[in-house]
Design brief:
The complex is a heterotrimer of chains A (112), B (169) and C (556). Chain A is of the alpha+beta class. Chain A has 2 helices and 6 strands, in the order E-E-E-E-H-E-E-H. Chain A has one domain. In chain A, strands 1, 2, 3, 4, 5 and 6 form a 6-stranded antiparallel beta sheet that branches. By secondary structure, chain B is α/β, with parallel strands linked by helices. Chain B has one domain: Aldolase class I (TIM Barrel, Alpha-Beta Barrel), CATH 3.20.20.70. Helices cover 31% and strands 20% of the residues of chain B. An 8-stranded mixed beta sheet of chain B has the order 2-1-8-7-6-5-4-3. In chain B, a hairpin with a 2-residue loop joins strand 1 and strand 2. Classes of the chains: A alpha+beta (112), B alpha/beta (169), C alpha+beta (556).
Chain lengths: 112, 169, 556
Amino acid sequence: MTNHVITANRLLDGLVVYQTATGEWSELAVAAVVGTDDLAAAMELGRAAEDRQEVTGVYEVEVDIAAGSPVPMRLRERIRAYGPTTHPDFGRAGDPAHFQHPDGVNAVRFGR
Amino acid sequence: MPLLKGDQIVDDPWRFVDDADDLPAEGPVVVSLKRWRDDRDVLMARGTQIGVRLTSEQTPGQVEGDLRHFGLVALEFPAFTDGRSYSNARRLRERYNYQGEVRAVGDVLRDQYFHLKRCGFDALEVKEGETAEDWLAATSVITTPYQPASDGADSVLSLRQRRMAAHVE
Amino acid sequence: MYRYDEFDHAVVRDRVAQYRDQVARRLSGEITEEQFRPLRLMNGLYLQLHAYMLRVAIPYGTLSSKQLRKLGHIARTYDRGYGHWTTRQNIQFNWPKLDETPDILAELAEVEMHAIQTSGNTIRNVTADAFGGVAADEIEDPRIWAEIIRQWSTLHPEFAFLPRKFKIAVTGAPHDRAAVRFHDIGLIMQRNWDGEVGFEVLVGGGLGRTPMIAKTVRKFLPKQHLLSYLEAILRIYNLVGRRDNKYKARIKIMVHELGIDEVGEMVEEEWERIRDSALHLPADEIQRIEAYFAPPAYEALPSDDAGFVAKKFEDPAFARWARANVAHHKQPGYAIVSLSVKPEGQPPGDVTAEQMDAVAELAKTYSLDELRVTHEQNLVFPYVKQSDLYALWRELDALELATANVGLAGDIIACPGLDYCGLASARSIPIAQRISKRFADLDRQHDIGELRIKISGCINACGHHHIGHIGLLGVDRKGEEYYQITMGGAPGEDAAIGKIVGPAFSSAEVVDAVEEVVQVYIEQRRDGERFLDTYRRLGEAPFKARLYEEKFHAAA
């Protein structure tokens, strides 16, 4: 059985959001993890939010729940969740390793 | 659906007839290019107005010789992102000097009315509730466009020209 | 530079009002996302990985200091304090809010700027040589024609729903600094036998999935026919271009599939019918636009400023900067200065709002109020007196905009990549940063000489990797980021598409691989040869051998 969260972009500011158990939209850490059986219903809920002009582009993201809270399996989805790896200033709480790079390159903090 | 023609909401006298259907006994009819080719004599013999409906893959050039028989040319927009009919409308007006009705049929949003009018369309089906005022507002959303097109309207280019000529005088 | 008259102002004002209404209809649900998307794209608003992204047009890359100050204000007020210069001479803001975008456009309109047609299946920003008007080798300032084309193409009602996007570039010199051969239409200014100036017209160039070099459709087109000829090309493309497959919809595919001769016949046939229409450009209209691009009131100066020469002897760091970042100007005593937006180890092409304000001030003081954006994501001051170069250098250095690496290994072009872009397969910015850091030593960069490294995070090639001397293409291999290396690409009059040198390298290996490639060049080069010359002389064999057969891969 694979685990998913439902994600979208908030219509007003385009920011990445995740559907919670109560149908609200928030950070990944509080997203509702949905098993295969409940996926269709969760997507329905998401599309209803689209119809209410709250969010746009609803889709499901596969996550790993071994660590307790959901972690997206694909790099692209981790970047969506935690922010651009080059600019931690624009990121959200997540694994600091997300912003680390080899070859002594540091992620940029603005106001350099 | 109400018909907008030449800045007014009017009754639509035309009837679109599918290829498989019989022609009605009387009244102006619009047929596909194929039907026109297949049943040309029958259509001409009816003695009423004839219109042709072109898909976005077809061009007015394919009926160039027959344009004088058509009171209406309908150009399709299968999706509003398919912009071929804008070029076909312009060719109808400018290359073939077609004076009859050029109607947009299919998927057009209010935001394309500006493009339609400038390219020489003078008729389209509007949504229930849309008024002539909506059409006028949408088609004048840019007061003076930069470039000349098929509606004979002033463009920035022509207005600047006129102003320069006036200065010289 | 061009200044809006009341007609230009009215167009952008009307457009802002139209867009404001469209946003309101989206927020109320009157139109769906599917209906709204093409409309917002026609005003340059994308929805990307993290947020909306607004691409503001900088016509042919020319900006006044006042406009730059406004861009800084927008970055500060509506975004997160910075902007990104693109490979088409535009600027991108990565974090605007949808309901604020009409206000952003209204503010831009105040300084004669807009975001019209910076996206969508429309005619996009017309780009031109960033040295236009000041290059010693130019026949005529290409920006005059870029402005004429800009006006004709803006809100052109027939070409708002083309099969795909359409990009036009103009060069005014035989040495092509605008990469015109990789555009849908490329225009090369020419003189004919009578000394008359006109255009060679090329069509069907492009990058992306299927890179192609444009082909000549007309060898000489007199100026007054430019717009009617372009209209003929666009009409044929609009009618004949493929609409069944998004990846086969550019005009380059049409030229490839039908052949340039057939395309040429269709265009000429259409053009014959419209050449004497209202699009025939009258001489006085051409002159009216030309007047905006007339040379400024230069001072009469000696061709070599003694102070500049002396300072180069005294200060080796200044000399090094002058060697890489200062180019020859057509006017005696003046110079063209490039501002490197590629500081060591930093994401290429980003400037903060504070830097924008400071650069705007410097442009006022040192460059007659004007600057340019290049398609290689740097800035240019086009009107600097040689006697001012030392002072300007000190100021730029304090702003981190004086890294002496223009055209060298550290002057990397990169798309935003997977860190920002929803289309990407892999990240490109961190790779650029790592390569920049690996080659940080400026003496080493100067020894290597001209080397253009371009990185794209996916096959759409917005980083222009196909025309890099070394190109990197990010690919996704089973969830891991890998990078294909191409070599021998060239954007100019010696146009060439880079060749893939072999299997892709992992993210961990790719920077070493690039260094090995450069090492082969250092070992094998002959006197005066740039990297590209050595590659052309030797072919890929020695580079391939080093990367795949010799110690490099064995060690990994």
